[in-house]
From TrEMBL, chain A:
Location of this chain's protein in the cell: Cell membrane
SUPFAM superfamilies: P-loop containing nucleoside triphosphate hydrolases
UniProt keyword annotation of Zinc present: no
GO terms of molecular function: ATP binding
Gene3D superfamilies, per the entry: P-loop containing nucleotide triphosphate hydrolases
This protein's UniProt keywords: ATP-binding, Cell membrane, Membrane, Nucleotide-binding, Transport
ABC transporter domain mapped to chain residues: 6-248
InterPro entries for this protein: AAA+_ATPase (IPR003593), ABC_ATPase_HisP-typ (IPR030679), ABC_transporter-like_ATP-bd (IPR003439), ABC_transporter-like_CS (IPR017871), MetN_ABC_transporter-like (IPR050086), P-loop_NTPase (IPR027417)
Topology versus the membrane: Peripheral membrane protein
Name recorded for this polypeptide: ABC transporter ATP-binding protein
Superkingdom in the source lineage: Bacteria
Pfam families the record matches: ABC_tran (PF00005)
């Protein structure tokens, strides 16, 4: 139990008449990387956004460490929002299009959350932020504005911003999809480092080779359910389901 | 967010409860007068003090009756509404006695006997008597007794603010005639030396009398006034004042023919401008700028609240915001100002002039700026809200620290337009008893007839401030753009 960082049970979500999630169950052990694969519209991004409550599931239970929310019984209004926010605080999110704050410098982007929302002392947060920037190779860009950086650098700042919150889990939503091909490598390298350092990560990506390399667990989704799950070697190397095979063929042909 | 709301409410309350001037032992009587109707009520060009026959008479009455006076200057058509709304207690501005007024107001015993005359363009022989006004156009204060005389004679009345404006319209050929008091006309002719207009003849009926007008309910004030007028007539004070202005006693019937041939002395355009520049500057600094700044600040805060209500998922809230915006943008600003100043007192909400103007102008700014703020907020990418949420921000924090600073970039150019419009729109304050920049130029123009020079000069003041504001806008835009343009 203590070694399970994330536990998702019976997750359902629909947008209007469209059922995007139709019963999702999985667990993520502490210090491991889980990769969600699937064609577009399969629901993988919705799963990730549910973990962060950017999308609110209709029902199902999400537990990250000691914080657990049962969405079927989530009260409306303030109490519900408070519960959602507690769960959200457990994870850091890296967006596809980085979503850095353009009016803040790199350093300010990192310390905004810890200082203002978590109310931690500025000195301490700044010191940690500089270590993180060093770790993603941007120690010298602390005072730059996001628009002065390359796409790959921006995404690395995005990762550092998520880490600065000291989350239990780091979520990646197609972190390299918006990047020029030659910039993908530097971002994947940083994510690989994190996994090696023992961060618990959940990653939505189309980079199959990267997934193979980094994932401890691969979940293949289609039509709002998990079709196949297992180690990277199992799911990517020797898929059992026809849908998984078709997807991999298509992606690898293009990749 | 909560502090902002609290601050705004506090500020509004503060303005509303700003105390009226403290009452001493003597009762304060607020006297409504035009200040632009020489030689009865005007500003002495040398001292800029309010003076004239009516002013001196009412001062003498106050001395006898033991009142303290407070003069409130406004254009004629706003005088009776102001009396009705208890913004003034008494009108001293050559109010002619007629039946309608006698029925509605408390009218004093007469202190002026005069007759109406018809004024025409020099040499316009089509107009010789009151009968010739049928089918013609005259220029009058629309609610004046002279307007009634003209209408009764079958003329169409163009509404103007004061005699000087009427004379200008006549000289320019925009109207055919004016009906007015012979003394006012003689004063105009003597002061301006104008050869453009002339007296064509008497306006029908024999004579008329001018009185003070009070509210019907102020019976004791009226009897004090009447006693004082009688006493002043008896001791010769009225005659002395009248002789000073008219070289005749107009306070009694047949007191001689008024002679104003000396005029009040003419001054060069340059002199007029020089003596008006300072009062206009004072009007700018003491009223126009504070009114603009305060209304814009409060208006922006309200605009933000309205914009947030407008985009909120709560139907009632967004509906109210939508209705507010629609009403503000769908009605004239002048009308909004009149509703606040003249309308609300009828349901017990009476603000001093400055406060009333701030209320009206800030609501107006809120209506227009709310849409600007709303679209600026919506122009910030959704991802910014989401990123703010993931770093632990609630709604208010996201708004204040992440969304609004970015929205400001989009909002500054259109909001600057709103500010510039507001600055110029404050000139409407002149109709709600505010002596701001434009009103000062009106006062001076009425006394000197230097319309072109004075209004151009006032325009120069407005323009200079707008230039300064535009420069400020540019600097602000550069600042806000620093994180977008490398």
């Amino acid at each position: 139990m203590t070694d399970t960082r994330i536990e998702v049970t019976g997750l359902h979500k629909s947008f209007g008449t469209l059922d995007v999630l139709r019963g999702i169950d999985f667990t993520v052990p502490r210090g491991t990387s889980t990769v969600l694969l699937g064609p577009s519209g399969s629901g993988k991004t919705t799963v990730l956004r549910s973990l962060n409550v950017l999308d609110t599931p209709d029902r199902g239970v999400i537990r990250i460490d000691e914080v657990s929310v049962d969405f079927a019984t989530l009260p409306p209004g303030k109490a519900g929002r408070a519960a959602s926010q507690r769960l959200r605080a457990q994870s850091g999110m890296v967006f596809q299009s980085h979503n850095l704050f353009p009016h803040r410098t790199v350093l300010q982007n990192l310390i905004e959350g810890p200082v203002v929302a978590q109310k931690r002392p500025v000195d301490e947060v700044v010191a940690e932020a500089r270590v993180l920037l060093d770790q993603v190779g941007l120690a010298d860009r602390a005072d730059s504005y996001p628009h002065q950086l390359s796409g790959g650098q921006q995404q690395r700042v995005g990762i550092a911003r998520a880490l600065a919150l000291k989350p239990r889990v780091v979520l990646f939503d197609e972190p390299t999809s918006a990047l020029d091909p030659e910039l993908v490598g530097e971002v994947l390298a940083v994510i690989k480092d994190l996994a090696a350092q023992g961060w618990t990560t959940v990653i939505v990506t189309h980079e199959i080779r990267f997934a193979e390399h980094v994932a401890d667990q691969v979940l293949f989704l289609d039509g709002g359910v998990i079709v196949e799950r297992g180690s990277a070697a199992q799911v990517i190397g020797d898929p059992q389901e026809e849908r998984t095979r078709r997807f991999l063929r298509r992606v690898l042909d293009h990749g | 967010m909560r502090q902002v709301i609290r601050g705004a409410v506090l500020l509004l309350l503060l303005l509303i409860v700003v105390p009226a001037p403290a009452t001493a032992q003597q009762p304060v009587v607020r006297v409504g007068t035009e200040g632009t109707y020489p030689p009865f009520s005007f500003h002495d060009p040398q001292t800029a003090e309010l003076t004239g026959y009516d002013i001196e008479v009412v001062k003498a009455i106050a001395a006898k009756a033991g009142w303290r006076l407070e003069f409130v200057e406004t254009q004629w058509d706003a005088i009776f509404p102001a009396l009705d709304a208890s913004r003034i207690d008494l009108v001293a501005n050559q109010v002619s006695r007629n039946e309608e007024r006698a029925a509605k107001y408390g009218l004093s015993t007469p202190y002026t006997h005069s007759r109406g005359v018809i004024v025409r363009r020099t040499g316009d022989t089509r107009i010789n008597s009151i009968a010739d006004l049928r089918g013609r156009t005259t220029a009058q204060s629309s609610t004046s007794n002279w307007a009634k005389v003209a209408r009764d004679a079958g003329a169409t009345v163009e509404a103007v603010e004061g005699f000087a404006q009427a004379a200008a319209l006549l000289a320019q050929g925009r109207v055919d005639a004016i009906v007015n008091d012979n003394i006012a006309v003689l004063d105009y002719l003597a002061t301006t030396g104008s050869k453009d207009v002339e007296i064509a003849g008497d306006a029908g009926q024999a004579g008329s009398v001018q009185v003070l007008a009070l509210r019907k309910t102020d019976a004791s004030l009226l009897s004090q006034a009447n006693q004082a007028i009688d006493a002043l007539r008896a001791d010769g004070t009225l005659r002395t004042i009248s002789q000073k202005y008219f070289k005749a006693d107009v306070s009694v019937e047949d007191g001689g023919t008024a002679d104003l041939s000396q005029g009040r002395g003419r001054r060069s355009t340059w002199d007029v401008l020089r003596s008006t520049a300072w009062p206009m500057f004072v009007g700018l600094v003491k009223v126009t700028i504070p009114l603009t700044a305060l209304s814009f600040t409060i208006g922006l805060i309200l605009a933000l609240l309205v914009a947030l209500a407008r985009i909120s998922p709560y139907r009632v809230l967004s509906g109210l915001a939508r209705a507010f915006i629609s009403i503000i943008r769908g009605t004239p600003l002048l009308l909004q100002l009149f509703i606040v100043f003249y309308g609300l007192p009828q349901i017990g909400l009476k603000f001093p002039p400055f406060t009333a103007a701030v209320v009206a102008f800030s609501l107006n700014v809120a209506g227009y700026a709310a849409e600007v703020v709303r679209s600026a907020i919506l122009s910030v990418p959704r991802g910014q809200f989401e990123a703010a949420a993931t770093i632990g921000f609630g709604y208010a924090q996201s708004l204040r620290r992440i969304v609004l600073p970015q929205a400001a970039r989009t909002a500054v150019p259109p909001l600057s337009n709103t500010l510039l419009s507001l600055l110029k729109d404050t000139s409407l304050g002149s109709v709600v008893l505010l002596t701001e920049l434009f009103r000062e130029s009106q006062l001076a123009a009425a006394e000197s007839n230097e319309f072109l020079a004075l209004y151009s000069f006032a325009g120069l003041y407005y323009w200079l401030i707008c230039v300064a504001l535009s420069a400020g806008q540019k600097r602000l835009e550069t600042r806000l753009n620093r994180y977008v343009i490398a």
